[in-house]
Specification:
By secondary structure, the protein is mainly alpha-helical. It has helices spanning 6-15, 26-32, 34-49, 55-69, 73-85. It is 69% helix and 0% strand. Keywords: Plasmid.
Length: 88
């Protein structure tokens, strides 16, 4: 059986009627586990904090930065990773 990705599980939780915080939803915790439910909470808060900026937009920004910086990418990647993690 093929293992589902985080986004596939997140979308499945949303389709289940994910109105309540995932970590408080008994069905979500039983189906996906508590750690995954906490990850759903974190992702859901990021998703709503950054209107108009999806995870795919962030990936595109990162790809553009990698291409633009070229050889400097290795030196600046740690700094940029910290910036992107705190970007919300």
């Amino acid at each position: 059986m093929k293992q589902k990705t985080f986004m596939q599980m997140f979308r499945e939780w949303e389709r289940m009627g994910g109105r309540v915080r995932a970590s408080l939803d008994r069905r979500c915790v039983e189906r996906f586990g508590y750690q995954t439910a906490l990850a759903f909470d974190r992702y859901d808060s990021i998703k709503h904090a950054i209107a108009g900026c999806t995870i795919h937009t962030r990936i595109n920004y990162r790809a553009a930065a990698t291409k633009a910086l070229g050889e400097q990418w290795r030196g600046r990647s740690l700094e940029l990773n910290r910036m992107w993690r705190n970007w919300s």
